[in-house]
Amino acid sequence: MSSTVDLNADLGEGFGVWRLGDDDALLRVITSANVACGFHAGDPSTMRRVCASAVAGGVAIGAQVSYRDLAGFGRRFIDVEPGELADDVLYQLAALDGIARAEGGRVGYVKPHGALYNATVGHAEQARAVVDAVVAYDPGLPVLGLPGSALLRTAEAAGLRPIAEGFADRQYTPDGHLVPRGGPGALLLDPAVVADRAVRMAVEGTVVAVDGSTVPARVESICVHGDTPGAVDLARAVRTALELAGVTPAAVTG
The whole model's pTM is what? Predict the structure, then answer.
C-alpha cells in the first residue's frame, strides 16, 4: 500500500469562447493539472488562466501534449514522422512552461493526451519522439504513462523518471490497456465505482478489467478526466475515498 498517490485531471481544454469542464472546481480537488498546450485544445489565454489558478492553489502543472489535431480533440491517431512529432511536443512543452513561469510556476512533468497517449503504449517510434522532446527541453522532467508502456520504458532508458498512471474513470482490457473510448462501457460515470477503483489501485495495485479479471495496476498517479460528465463529483468522490483509506493525495512532482 502506498501512503500517497497523485490525483490528476486534464484541464484547460477549452478554446476561445468554448469552455470544457470546470477547471476552477477541479483545481480545488486534484494535486496535478495536465494543462492542454494548444494542439488538441487550449489557447494562450486559457493556458495562462489555468496556470495562474494552479500556482495559487499549490497544484502541480503538467504539459498535456498531443498530436496537431484541434478538430479531432487529439483523439485521432496520426502517423506523423518521429522528428516532426518530437518538434511538436517540444513546441507545446516550451510554450506551456513559459506561460507557467510567467505566473510564478513551472511545468513539472509531461503527459501525452488522447490518441498520442494510446499510441505510445506500443508505438516505439512515437514513444521515442516524445521522450526525445522532453530530454531536449529538460531531462529532469518526469513522464506520465501507462504501466508497462513503450513510453515509460523509453523514458527510463533515457534517464527520465517514469511515472505509472492509472485511470479511475476508464475500463481496462485484460492485458492492462484502456478500452477504446468507442467501446461499450469504456467510460465509468458512477462516483462510487470510480472511487472504489481508485482506492484499489492505490492500496492493492490492481484494477478489475472489463471481463471481470484482475490485472496489475501499480501506479503513482490516478487520473479523472476533466471532460468526463460529472468530473468534479467523480474527483471529489475519489479524493474522499482515498483519504478514508489512509492514502494522502499528493503531487508526485512540483
Answer: 0.95
